[in-house]
Design goal:
The complex is a heterodimer. By secondary structure, chain A is mainly α. Chain A has helices at 4-42, 44-55, 78-91, 108-112, 123-132; strands at 71-72, 100-101. Chain A contains five helices and two strands. Chain B has helices spanning 2-15, 17-20, 23-41, 46-59, 92-99, 103-107, 131-140, 144-155, 159-163, 167-173, 176-187, 192-199, 206-216, 221-233, 235-246, 249-252, 264-281, 286-301, 305-329, 333-336, 339-369, 388-400, 407-432; strands at 71-76, 79-81, 87-89, 112-116, 119-127. In chain B, the strands form two sheets. In chain B, strands 1-5-4 form a three-stranded antiparallel sheet. The chains are: A mainly alpha, B mainly alpha.
Chain lengths: 136, 433
């Protein structure tokens, strides 16, 4: 006599459970293989933090408000604005926000005065400027 | 002369469909119009509903011949001509060679032969078959469903599943509803093959449903396909009451841990290993699983962009049209307007509901076992109605906690259910065919 539970339901459920075990096992095997490959590429030291990042519970990352864009004169290139902001940040120790950068208008006396020869920055001063604007 | 005109018009009328259309034909035509309305005006799975409904309409038009098989004549052969032009008497050795398939070397290509009663006949096609007869070959020979799965694989993302392997448990548990419905269908008097075709509706997977039904019970294809696609479209209506009934407020508000990022290597290796593992376990599932994983590999590899785009767009759209027309053409009055169809529709709904219930229940168990880290609502996404089931999870969860984003967590069970339903289909075919 045909027994549907014994001949169809139970075998099919067992097949599904075995397939489930195979798939889960494949995923963990794959994860292990990829981790080993990455460890071989990056070295042991770098893989450990990556592993701890993967297993550490995700903490809420505080969303920082984006600083308002610096209002800059149209005559200044973006790179120049960035370099000036970096230089100011290096010089000023206290928390601050650069809100605008604008060229200073020349006074009448400055215009009337003869052009001064460009002074060469001393070497140490040049080195200091380079050090303070290193990211840019 | 007037008599002649009257006679001609009478003959024309008698040869038209108006003379032979029956009440059941008209009912099926009306039903197809209702399905077209549902597809267009109500948005009930229009991509499949419109071709299916129109195929139903065409199939129930009398005298169209659109479904008819080719008209063939068999001519007894006493002499045959070989490829070099010589005439040979038909001997038992030649008949045996034809039977073993070596006939092309003897008789030349392009000829069809049949052997009956120890005699050789040449099969001459006097009239080709109807259009939908040839479309149906794609369903009957089980070509279209795997091609649909190829396109689905190119659209699917296994990332949430790889990052959350426990989804497989939910996807597998949701298939329990299929087995419960199988037993119910048997109890109602359906054969095991018919019961499998009806029960697989609970997987909420159209190609898998058509794959199983075309293999085990092709005479039920029209009813089963229409029921399956209708319920898939009704997921947002059917599932939420059961999701709320089976969970409490605290469980619905569970916030799950963010999924880890999945590397490209994992995304490329997973389809290959999965196809190997499952195909070796359940060989009849190979056409479906193999195409699903091939489509996914094409997409994830990133080096076959044209193939991926073709699979996701042109190919799946073309196959959908042919598949829908072919499936709809099986819904003819004589096999659709029966009490059996009503039982199929009721059992299909039961299968769907039971799959939802078992998925949510297993997710509740997992929630308890993990100390409240899994939101039980994602259990309802253990049906393969992609991505609607996951979207419903997100919507229901967001009602209780607007900051709770369950969508990607629910995609894991949905995707695993696609694989799980293919495994169940393969098991059913292996046991029952």
């Amino acid at each position: 006599m045909y027994n549907p539970i014994g001949s169809m339901v139970v075998p099919s459920m067992l097949v599904v459970l075995v397939a489930l075990a195979i798939m889960v096992g494949l995923i963990y095997l794959m994860r292990y293989i990829v981790a080993q490959i990455n460890r071989g590429k990056n070295g042991t030291g770098q893989s450990a933090p990556a592993k701890s990042q993967a297993t550490a519970p995700a903490t809420a990352i505080p969303v920082q408000a984006q600083p308002a864009p610096v209002a800059a004169s149209a005559s200044l290139a973006g790179e120049t604005v960035a370099a000036i902001c970096a230089a100011v940040s290096c010089v000023i120790d206290a928390p601050h926000t650069v809100t605008s950068i604008a060229p200073v208008a020349q006074t009448a006396s400055a215009v009337a005065a003869p052009a001064q020869p460009v002074r060469q920055r001393p070497v140490w001063g040049f080195a200091g400027m380079q050090q303070n604007t290193r990211p840019f | 002369m007037f008599a002649q005109i009257a006679y001609t018009f009478s003959a024309l009328f008698n040869s038209s469909g108006f003379a032979v259309v029956t009440g059941p034909n008209l009912i099926m035509i009306l039903l197809s119009a209702v399905l077209i309305y549902l597809g267009i005006a109500k948005g009930v799975e229009p991509l499949l509903m419109l071709p299916i409904a129109f195929g139903m309409l065409l199939a129930n038009l009398p005298l169209s011949g659109i479904l008819g098989p080719p008209v063939q004549e068999m001519v007894l052969l006493e002499y045959i001509r070989d490829a070099s032009g010589h005439y040979l008497p038909v001997t038992p050795e030649i008949i045996e060679a034809v039977r073993n398939g070596g006939y092309t070397y003897i008789l030349g290509l392009g000829q069809s032969f049949a052997i009956e009663g120890g005699q050789l006949f040449q099969v001459i096609t006097q009239q080709p078959g109807g259009l939908l007869f040839y479309f149906y070959l794609g369903v009957g020979l089980v070509v279209f469903p795997p091609l649909i799965f190829l396109g689905i694989g190119a659209m699917i993302d296994f990332g949430p599943l790889i990052a959350f392997p426990s989804s497989f448990i939910i996807g597998a548990a949701a298939q329990l509803g299929i087995f419960a419905t199988f037993l119910g269908a048997l109890w109602l008097g359906f054969s095991p093959q018919e019961s499998s075709a009806i029960a697989i509706i609970g997987s909420a997977d159209g190609p898998t449903t058509i794959f199983v039904t075309a293999t085990l019970a092709p005479h039920l294809l029209g009813s089963v396909a229409i029921a399956a696609y209708t319920y898939m479209a009704l997921v947002p209506i059917i599932q939420p009451p059961f999701m709320k009934a089976l969970t409490n407020d605290k469980e619905r508000r569970v916030v799950m841990k963010q999924l880890r990022p999945v590397s490209k290597t994992e995304r490329c290796v997973f389809p290959v290993l999965s196809a190997l593992g499952v195909a070796l376990l359940v060989p009849p599932a190979t056409p479906l699983l193999g195409m699903l994983m091939l489509g996914n590999l094409i997409k994830e590899s990133g080096v076959c962009e044209r193939l991926s785009q073709t699979a996701q767009n042109e190919m799946i759209n073309i196959v959908t049209i042919f598949l829908g027309l072919a499936v709809g053409s099986t819904a003819r009055a004589e096999n659709f307007l029966t009490a059996q169809t009503l039982m199929i529709i009721a059992l299909g709904l039961a299968a769907f509901i039971l799959s939802t219930i078992t998925g949510v229940l297993i997710a509740k168990v997992m929630c308890f076992a993990t100390g409240g880290k899994i939101n039980p609502l994602i259990g309802s996404a253990g049906v393969s109605a992609m991505p609607m089931a996951a979207r419903v999870c997100q919507q229901v969860g967001a009602k209780y906690d607007p900051n709770n984003f369950l969508l990607m967590h629910a995609m894991g069970p949905t995707v695993s259910a696609t694989i799980g339903s293919a495994v169940v289909a393969g098991a059913m075919i292996a046991i029952l065919s």
